[in-house]
Amino acid sequence: MPIRKSLYRRPPTPNGLKVIEQDTLEWFSPEVYSNMNSGVLEEYIEERNRKRAFSDTKWSWKAVLFGMFIGTIFCVITEYVGLKVGIAIPGGGYVVYLLAILWRWKPSTVNDAQGVTAAATSIGSGFIFTFPALYLLHKHPDYRIGGTPDNPFFLITEIPPLYVVMVATMVAGMLGTVYFIIFRRLWLVEDPLPVPGFEAGIQLLEICHESWKGTMESAKRTIMGIFWASLVSAIITFLRDMPLPGQGGHSAFDMMFPGEYYNHGAFTVPPEYQTWTTLEFGIIPIQIGLGWYMRFRVAFLMSLGTLLTWFIIAPMSYWFETPIYIVGFDPLNDGAAGAFVSVRDFPNPFAQFTTPVFASYGNIGRIIAIGAILGGGLTALAKMWPVFKPAFKDVAKAMKSTGDDDGAGDYVPGKGWYEWPLSHIPYMMVMTAIALVVIFLAGGYPFVQTLAFALALVATTFALGAISVKVMGETGTQPVSGTSFITLILLVGIFQAMGTSLELTAVMAILCTTIFGSSISMSGVVIGEYKAALYVGNKPFHLMKAILTGVISGAIFAVIGAVMFSDGMSTIDPDTGEPVLNLLAPQANAFASFLQALLGAASSTITQYIIFGVFLGIFAEIMTGMGTAFGLGMYFHLQLTLPMLLGGATRDLWEKKFLIPRAKREKWTERQTTLKVLDTFMIATGLIIGEAIMGVIVTIVLMII
Fold it and tell me: How far apart are CA 403 and CA 421, in angstroms?
């Protein structure tokens, strides 16, 4: 079987095989940590969970409702963080973990509470990357398509009813969640993906386990390691992001590193030298921690995409004076429409703060990256067909099952459902399509376009959801914005082929892409929760119920927060000439510019870049097996991937130069070696937790002031 040749399967350890054969494996033991992603461990635990989870786990509405409460609060906070810095960093889960330790909850109960929190928080990701483009194209001066600055004309003249996107997001989010049933079997049990960073959650669940048993003494080492690393990470984040009183919004690091070599949390080359290329290194503890979990090989393969964008594509575009399309720049028409200008023409009056290398990245490299994500993802799906084929047979078999046998593997006779039934997937697909048509028709949208979107969503959520899960499993990063770009292109092509007006095309494309983004974010984000559930003995059925609960509350608050932030960032203060909310929103601005260009003169150029990216992604997938991660790396700034690369390289260097020689010299056992590695996991976990929690605190302060 192809899955036995997996890129990710690790060889099991002798002690691991021994405890599995003797059926004496204990939760959170060194044998568990040292055999994760071996495949042997996962298959063993899966079979054991089917027998024991019914008696070992209990459903708790108290825990689920608590997780839903935390998740809905952090849904809005996470949206703000994503619009502020371009990366959604959820911190609500850590609040759940810390209070669960205090309340001595069982790990499986904590897993359910964390699942509903993650669902309620993450469904907002689809909104922060796409939805604000609706308001930007409706009233932001930078996106006018005609008229004068005092009397502008915009592509979108009216904001549509918002209940449509709210209700549709709930339905589509449930579909994306239910789709994951197939992916869980493929990429967590049969061919386990590493999901870098999930170890942080496992270690927090271990602390919960010790608290629940009343034996916190054995967890003190883990707690202290995580505490000190979290403290250091939180202090760095505070100094980097927290605005100082009376300093015009500048942070301590802004004051400590004045000048051109430091900018918003990253050391960088001054703008006047950003012609051929640039160099950035972000002070981002989370990325260093993720890199440590990834190790150098995976981090490097992902970083290759970033290096290609900034050190090959960017200088080549400058050398050949590549033309790019600038919305709102037309010297022959008073800047009312748009025009092609050379990369060398930056900065210009319509992009005063954009240097040549960033113009190349935003208008060439990032578009090629979208194609690479698509090409690599589709190639990965084609390679995985031998694995998907039996999964589809499982679906067909489940539909024929009467529910009183274990033919589909979901129902355990005499006990109940172990996993949400596979047979629900086809019915959910049909119900989702019908519901979307009804919802959009009630909002006044045309039937034919609505039907086309509903069918496209059902198909793309599965296909691109699989890509999203694979990327998340490979890199620990969710490619919501990249896959949403693919959907946007598809929908624009469909609507334009139907003769839809430009305004209706823009409105429906943004709303439908937002719904898709929220749906696909559910497919990807829950992989970490399900992976943790496997290692703590939780029932997938319980976790699915919790996540579906979080989808409902998350969708409501995601719309409320998105409308508030979108309106603020697109409304100009007449006294200052600046937006009421000064949010960077890189993805939302990219969507607005991309859509405006796609409906105008630059559509053929964009298509050429995407096609080139598709072939690049295919090549990367064939050569490395990580084409989707490679494409995602192309989409990122250097300041994001270089810290991750540093973390992976540091771990490999530490193991090669210090850990292994010392283990041989002092004749350590396998258990001793594993415990030393786990000590470093505490540090990496702390780096992730500290920045996430402090990032939330900074966000609350920024929202208040």
Answer: 9
| DSSP code, position 288 | H
What is the arithmetic mean of pLDDT over 368-390? 73
Query: Residue 667's pLDDT is what?
Result: 86
Give the whole-angstrom CA distance, residue 570 versus residue 152.
14
Residue burial 626-664, b: 16+ Cβ < 10 Å; e: rest? bbbbbbbbbbbbbbbbbbbbbbbbbbeeebeeebeeebe
Q: Please state, in angstroms and rounded to a whole number, the distance separating the CA atoms of residues 252 and 199.
A: 32
Mean pLDDT of the chain: 81
The DSSP code for 343 is: G
What is the DSSP secondary-structure string of 635-663? Answer: HS-HHHHHHHHHHHHHHHHHIIIIIHHHH
Amino acid at 27: W
Q: What is the pTM of this model?
A: 0.73
Write out pLDDT tens, residues 86-133.
566 666 777 788 788 878 899 999 999 999 998 988 887 777 778 999
> If DSSP codes are grouped into helix, strand and coil, which group holds residue 63?
helix
CB hemisphere CA count around 535 (13 angstroms): 31
| Distance between CA atoms of residues 633 and 640, nearest Å | 9
| CB contact at 8 A, 487 and 129 | no
Tens of pLDDT along 660-672? 899 889 888 766 7
Give, for 281, the enclosing helix (H) or strand (E). strand 280-282
Q: What pLDDT score was predicted for residue 286? A: 82
Please tell me the distance from the alpha carbon of residue 475 to that of residue 690, in angstroms, as a whole number. Answer: 20
Tell me the average pLDDT across 346-364: 77
Helix, coil or strand: residue 340: strand
β-pair partners for 323? 342
Residue 601 token pair: 């003169």
What's the pLDDT score for residue 330? Answer: 53
Q: Is the CB of residue 351 less than 8 Å from the CB of residue 338?
A: no
Cα–Cα distance between 103 and 698 in angstroms, integer? 27
Which comes out higher in pLDDT, residue 632 or 174?
174
List phi, psi (to 5°) of 154: -120, 155
Say whether pLDDT at 448 is over 90: yes
Q: Is the pLDDT of residue 3 over 60?
A: no
Collapsing DSSP to helix, strand or coil, 79 comes out as helix
C-alpha to C-alpha distance for 523 and 27, rounded to whole angstroms: 27
The label of the residue with tokens 């594509």 reads 313
- Give the angle subtended at the CA of 355 by the CAs of 352 and 359, to the nearest 5°: 100
Amino acid letter, 598: L
| Residue whose entry in the numeric block shows the structure tokens 């998105």 | 562
Q: Side chain identity at 217, as an amino acid letter? A: E
- pLDDT, mean of residues 241-266: 82
> Which of 379, 591, 559 has its CA nearest to residue 487?
591
How far from 276 is each of 266, 269, 346, 357, CA to CA, in Å? Answer: 19, 11, 12, 6
User: Residue 195 in contact with residue 649, Cβ under 8 Å?
Assistant: no
Q: What is the mean pLDDT of residues 378-402?
A: 59
